[in-house]
Design goal:
By secondary structure, the protein is of the alpha/beta class. The protein is built from 15 helices and 29 strands. The strands form five sheets. A ten-stranded mixed beta sheet has the order 17-20-19-18-22-21-24-23-25-26, sandwiched between helices. It has an eight-stranded mixed beta sheet with strand order 3-2-1-4-13-14-15-16, with no helix packed on it. Strands 5-6-7-8-9 form a five-stranded parallel beta sheet, with helices on both faces. Helix 2 crosses helix 3.
């Protein structure tokens, strides 16, 4: 790494002054101690680094240290990170694990206190974080905000526990992140009025505009499954001051290709104001969350990047606290071997555990989860399924496949349902990455294939898998069943192999495992599958798989 005392010249992109000018920056002991205007300089650009304003690091399947080694090469210098996923598995120990691991990384991780562990009482998680524990977390300087309040009914109906969690965020004067998909404007008014200041779940301009009207910041999200950039980017024409960029959930095969830099380049290519776009990507998160991240001003930490141009934003160098941590696609951090923590207590399953028996009927009408490409939301469909020898099976002719959620924390009956748009023609796919409680979720053509997939995960105590006959393609995730102990490149190669294997079985989804991981999340509309049964998010209660004549 470059010594902490140095000078660097280039075209300085001053986002506070909305100006670009030749300058020499002097750095000493990790701080910027002087910025001197020059007449001419080399044709590179020095600018603040990029910030992901909402991400679950666990969804990259990487530890913070491994994430840092790839994200910094794309100019990311900080994240606003919700350790909600590992908290649902390992509780307070999981949050501390992320904080401790991040201390060995150059990238500046800013963690929040997960507000919804579990997300609802309609699923089984591995831990509970109550209001008293939120109080403990909010008092810690490492915790910068209260993470996304997904229990929006709890806010609207003023649930005592939910309101106490919001109280502690206010008490410590820390921001509260929101999670409000498809919420009416009247409900948004009440939700935002409770102190909730952001939302990353908007899927339309109309939805974003009424949330902005009620004072919320909008995070334009582009992850591996949920892609809302195209729907929301026109907000730069009318409300640039209300915007930030985030990825939310990003799998390793996509992370190794780019991060927030990609969204910036796309927005600028569409003709939106350069300074507005860069402010959203580099400065707005620092201001909103009071992050200890330099903004390329005298006295700030020397956190900045050098790019070759202001169109594609190819990153030449990344500096954090005055250290050049990455250059020309290479990261200079020392590799770190992570510890292993987990919470897994499930015996192998039998094929009979996935059998759906129906008596006294030749066929039945069933409710079907309809997965949507590029979205976390689902719709509710119906299908007429034949009853064969008293049993309901997947129906490939209708693309109606069996889905199950298996409790990973204790022995319990398997919850069963049906799903459409996965397109499998053979085998099964399964994962212990199943937001937010991270039980085992599996979609398959036959009960036997589902058994094979689930038992591979039981044997490995977590991972993602494709099963077809005797062939098992498994990516172990030994850390909480969510995270690999490998590098980003190793994780990406393993994930790409599984992605290809799933598509070879017929899956038509662009990101089958990312989509699969959200089919058990009962806080995103409309129909989901938890370990306790089929759940209607719109009415916020369990619903029957087999439709009655009155439904």
């Amino acid at each position: 790494m470059m010594p902490l005392k140095f000078e660097i010249e280039g075209q300085l992109v001053d986002l506070q002054q909305r100006a670009i000018y030749p300058a020499k920056i002097s750095v000493e002991e990790g701080k910027i101690n002087r910025i001197e205007r020059l007449e001419t300089v080399p044709g590179v650009y020095i600018m603040p680094g990029f910030i992901d304003a909402h991400i679950h690091i666990e969804s990259s399947m990487l530890t913070p240290t491994a994430f840092s080694r790839v994200a910094t090469t794309f100019g990311t210098i900080a994240t606003v990170s919700d350790p909600h996923e590992i908290a649902n598995v390992c509780g307070m120990e999981g949050i501390q694990y992320m904080i401790d691991n991040a201390r060995h990384a150059a990238l500046k991780f800013n963690f929040g206190a997960p507000s919804c562990v579990p997300a609802t009482g309609f699923e089984t998680a591995g831990a509970v974080i109550d209001a008293e524990q939120i109080k403990i977390l909010m008092a810690q300087p490492e915790i910068k905000y209260l993470a996304e309040m997904m229990n929006f009914p709890g806010v609207l109906y003023k649930d005592a526990e939910v309101m106490q969690k919001l109280h502690w965020a206010g008490h410590y004067q820390k921001p509260i992140d929101g999670h409000a998909p498809h919420m009416s404007e009247a409900d948004v008014s009440q939700y935002a009025g409770a102190g909730i200041s952001t939302d990353h779940e908007c899927t339309s301009l109309e939805e974003a505009l009424y949330k902005i009207k009620h004072g919320m910041k909008i995070l334009i999200r582009e992850g591996s499954a949920a892609k809302n950039f195209e729907a929301l980017v026109d907000l730069f024409s009318s409300h640039p001051e209300a915007l930030m960029f985030c990825s939310d959930d990003k799998h390793p095969d996509e992370l190794i290709k780019g991060h927030i830099n990609q969204l910036v380049a796309r927005a600028v290519a569409k003709g939106f104001d350069l300074f507005d776009v860069l402010y959203a990507a580099c400065i707005a998160p620092v201001e909103h969350y009071a992050l200890e991240v330099g903004q390329l001003q005298v006295g700030d930490a020397a956190d900045f990047i050098v790019v070759s141009n202001l169109s594609t934003f190819d990153v030449l160098q990344t500096y954090i606290d005055g250290h050049m941590v990455a250059a020309a696609g290479e990261n200079f951090e020392t590799p770190f071997t992570p510890a292993i923590i987990n919470h897994f207590n499930r015996h192998p399953v039998q094929a009979a555990d996935f059998r759906l028996e129906v008596k006294d009927a030749a066929s039945v009408s069933v409710q079907v989860i309809e997965a949507l490409e590029g979205q976390l939301i689902t719709t509710v469909a119906t299908a007429q399924l034949a009853v064969e020898a008293g049993v309901l099976n997947s129906d490939l002719s209708q693309d109606v496949l069996k889905i199950a959620v298996v409790n990973r924390y204790k022995e319990a009956p398997v919850a069963l349902g049906f799903i459409r748009n996965f397109g499998l023609q053979r085998g099964a796919i399964a994962s212990t990455v199943a937001h937010d409680s991270h039980n085992i979720v599996v979609v398959g053509v036959t009960d036997e294939a589902m058994q094979s997939a689930v038992n591979a995960l039981v044997a490995s105590r977590g991972g993602i898998v494709v099963a077809e006959g005797d062939q098992i393609n498994l990516m172990p995730l030994p850390i909480a069943g969510l995270i690999t102990d490998k590098t980003a490149l190793e994780a990406a190669a393993a994930y790409e192999s599984l992605d290809l294997a799933a598509k070879t079985l017929g899956c038509r989804l662009a990101a089958p495992f990312m989509t699969l991981s959200f089919m058990a999340l009962p806080v995103i509309p409309s129909l989901k599958m938890t370990d306790k049964g089929l759940f209607n998010v719109d009415s916020f209660n369990f619903t029957s798989l087999i439709k009655s004549k009155h439904q």
